[in-house]
Amino acid sequence: MTETLRTPTAAVRPAAGTSAAGPTRVVPARRRRPGAARRIPLHVFLIAICAIWVVPLVGLIVYSLRTIADSAVSGWWHAFTAPLFTITNYTSAWTTGGIGQALGNSILIAVPTTVITITVCAIGAYTLARMKFRGRIVVLTIAVALLVVPPQLTLVPLLRVFNVLHLTGHIPGVWVYQVGFVVPFGIYLLFGFFRAFPDELIEAASLDGASVPRIFFSIVLPTATPILIALAIIQFMWSWNDLLIPLLFLGGGASVAPTTVQIAGLVQSTGGGLNLLTAAAIVSMIIPVIVTVVLQRYFVRGILGGAVKG
C-alpha cells in the first residue's frame, strides 16, 4: 500500500520553470545600489558646500539686526547665545542712508531697460529668423560679432558722445548703454528659437488672413514666453547689480544714484559701519530675489529653447 502511494508521487516531476505549488516567475537580477554608507561622504560634501554659501548670508542678516554696540564687542555668531535684535539699522539705511530713494532709482533703471531689451531683441530676432531681405546674414553676423566687444573699451568714446547729446546725468542715458550691450546677446539667444518655429503655424495663419504683426504678437510671442523671461532675468539682474555704468554716466548724485552706487558711497562715508551697510545690502537684495524666485521655473526652459538648432 505504501509503495502504491509513493509511486505516482515519485513519477510526477515538476516541469522546468514550475514547482509543486505552480509555475515560478523568473525575476531579473536587480542591480545593487550603493549602500547608504557609501553616500555619506557625498552628503557631507554637499552639506559643506551649502554651509559655505549660507553662512555669509546668515552673518549678513544677523549684522543688520544687531546694535552697533553689540557688533563692536562680539562677532555676529554671539547673537544666537544672547539675542538682542533691532530694526533701527533698516530705518537708518532707508532714511539717513538714502537707500529708499536709491531703490526707486534702481527700479527706474532696471525695469525700462529690461522692457526695451525684450522688445528690441524679440522684433530683431524674429525679423532675422523669419523674414527674407537682402543683407540679412550680414546684419546677423554683425550682431553676433558684437558679442566679443568688451564694454570697457566703449566707456570713454560713448561718454563723450553722451556729453554732446546731454544724456549724462540722466537715467535714459543708462538705458541706452545697457540695452545696447545686451541686444546682440538677446538676438543670438532668440534667433535659434524663432528659426525653429514651425512653418505650418505661420502658413496656416497667413492663409486665414493674419498679418505679420498679428502672427508675431498672437502666435509667436505666446510660445516664446519662457525664453523671453529667461532673457528678462539676465538683463534685469545685470542692470540691477551694475555699478560702473551708473557711476560714470549718472555722476553719483544722490537724486539719480541706484542702490549699487549708494551702497558704495556708504562704504566710504561710514568707514566700515557694518550694521548700516548690511541693512542697506539686504534691502537692495529683496527685489532681485523675488524676481528670481518667481520666474526661476521659466529660466532653464528658456535657455534650452534658445539652444534649438534651426
Describe this structure in words.
It is a multi-pass membrane protein. This is Carbohydrate ABC transporter permease. Belongs to the binding-protein-dependent transport system permease family. Pfam families: BPD_transp_1 (PF00528). It is found in: Cell membrane. With 310 residues, the chain is an all-alpha fold. The protein has two domains: 48 residues; 210 residues, MetI-like (MetI-like fold), CATH 1.10.3720.10. It contains 14 helices and two strands; from the N terminus they run H-E-E-H-H-H-H-H-H-H-H-H-H-H-H-H. It has a two-stranded antiparallel sheet. Helix 2 packs across helix 14, helix 4 packs across helix 14 and helix 5 packs parallel to helix 8. The longest helix is centred in the last third of the chain and has 33 residues. The protein is globular. The N and C termini lie far apart (86 Å). The N terminus and C terminus are likely disordered.
Structure summary:
The chain is mostly helical. It has 14 helices and 2 strands, in the order H-E-E-H-H-H-H-H-H-H-H-H-H-H-H-H. It folds into 2 domains: 39-86; 97-306, MetI-like fold.
List keywords for this structure.
two-stranded antiparallel sheet; disordered C terminus; 310 residues; 1% strand; MetI-like fold; mainly alpha; 14 helices; 2 strands; disordered N terminus; 2 domains
